[in-house]
Amino acid sequence: MKAKLHSRITVDSYRTVLMLQELDDQDRRLRTDLLRQVDNGSIKLIHSCA
Questions:
Q1: I need a labelling partner for 6 at 20 to 30 A (CA). Which of 22, 44, 45, 49 fits?
Q2: Rounded to the nearest 5 degrees, what angle is found at the Cα of 7, between the Cα atoms of 23 and 11?
Q3: Domains of the chain: total
């Protein structure tokens, strides 16, 4: 899946947002998968604090 995120968010901010709430098993798996995609470069986020 190819998608482009138009808003600016840092990797650290993205991780924080994904882990804000109490998670059920399905949410935990989804968010873990999204973080894995960030780590392997499938999802590219801005690495600046600007």
A1: 22
A2: 55
A3: 1
